[in-house]
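Researcher: Quick test of sequence recovery. Tokens follow.
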């Protein structure tokens, strides 16, 4: 699924000019804050990353064509105002005299929003917390979360990587989408987060629940994701890796400290776990895939999160990204994924009913 474009740009306004000035002064404000701020520490002396955080943002994983790494103040103002215009349009009262919607529903043009609603109006903006602002990383408004390769896009596939993609496509084409539970997406089956919230890498899903709770002890770090309540437990110390044939969801993660930065290295990723989901950079990892994450507390309200994906079997180069995690002034709640949700059951019941109807039709034709 692609999320590689921003909302359309609106007209400039007086508030937009104010926002432009604020953005221009932002690096100065960040520098002033960092000079007065003291990094909190736990009793063992390690930096304190604990608390509730969110990586919700408008900035897409993959950079849209024609943009540089850093957006101009005018571009930021236009994009953020475009987001507000989109929300306002969705909140408008429906015309009581409108005609029937087109076949397949009324699509908005936003690929992720349309994928969730199916054009049927299943969600409106009341239920959505996708992120209303451009990601600011080290004082820079970013056009994409990927920063390497330099074009902000996924690295090129190796020959073997292309072959692996072709093999998976050919395998999936043997089945109809509703043939069996295993054909349904992992998130629909409540196995993994939508998109790549759970990680690694931990990335926004551009819809809702992009929230995390971090808890630290000297021996482990726990990161709980609100979306589908994925929980990562990162053991600290010298890695004692799982055997290569053991590949759990979320992989095998071990952490250590480099100065003030928590470094997490993950291997043994499950072959069916989609990395960098909710973008046109998503892929299935090979047995050699390794993800390195770096979390650095840079202010009272922000953690700088960096990720590096190394998979020489699949890609000709590594992929690196930078994502701000901002303090969440709120609580995380249980994501009751399939409670009172009959979607998967009904999908399969419908498929069995269709098969029975086809069998009956074939029997009548034979007679």
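Model:
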């Amino acid at each position: 699924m692609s999320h590689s474009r921003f909302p359309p740009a609106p007209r400039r306004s007086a508030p937009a000019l104010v926002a432009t000035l604020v953005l221009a002064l932002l690096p100065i404000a960040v520098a002033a804050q960092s000079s007065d701020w003291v990094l909190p520490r736990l009793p063992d002396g390690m930096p304190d990353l604990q608390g509730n955080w969110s990586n919700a943002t408008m900035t897409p994983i993959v950079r849209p064509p024609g943009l540089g790494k850093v957006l101009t103040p005018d571009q930021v103002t236009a994009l953020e105002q475009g987001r507000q215009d989109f929300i306002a349009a969705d909140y408008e009262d429906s015309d009581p005299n409108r005609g029937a919607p087109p076949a397949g529903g009324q699509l908005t043009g936003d690929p992720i929003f349309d994928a969730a609603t199916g054009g049927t109006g299943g969600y409106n903006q009341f239920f959505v917390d996708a992120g209303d602002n451009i990601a600011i990383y080290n004082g820079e408004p970013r056009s994409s979360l990927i920063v390497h390769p330099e074009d902000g896009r996924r690295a090129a596939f190796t020959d073997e990587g292309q072959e692996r993609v072709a093999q998976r496509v050919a395998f999936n084409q043997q089945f109809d989408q509703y043939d069996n539970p295993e054909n349904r997406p992992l998130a629909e089956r409540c196995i993994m987060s939508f998109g790549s919230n759970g990680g690694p890498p931990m990335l926004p899903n551009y819809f809702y629940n992009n929230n995390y709770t971090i808890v630290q002890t000297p021996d482990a770090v726990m990161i709980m994701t609100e979306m589908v309540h994925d929980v990562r437990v990162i053991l600290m110390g010298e890695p004692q890796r799982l055997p290569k044939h053991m590949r759990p969801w979320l992989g095998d993660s071990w952490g250590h400290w480099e100065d003030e930065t928590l470094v997490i290295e993950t291997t043994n990723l499950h072959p069916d776990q989609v990395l960098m989901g909710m973008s046109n950079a998503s892929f299935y990892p090979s047995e050699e895939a390794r993800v390195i994450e770096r979390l650095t507390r840079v202010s009272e309200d922000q953690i700088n999160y960096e990720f590096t994906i190394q998979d020489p079997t699949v890609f000709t180069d590594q992929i690196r990204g930078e994502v701000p995690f901002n303090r969440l002034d709120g609580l995380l709640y249980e994501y009751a994924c399939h409670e009172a949700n009959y979607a998967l059951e009904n999908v399969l019941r419908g498929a069995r009913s269709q098969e029975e109807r086809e069998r009956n039709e074939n029997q009548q034709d034979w007679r």
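The helical segments are 14-36, 73-91, 111-117, 159-172, 343-366.
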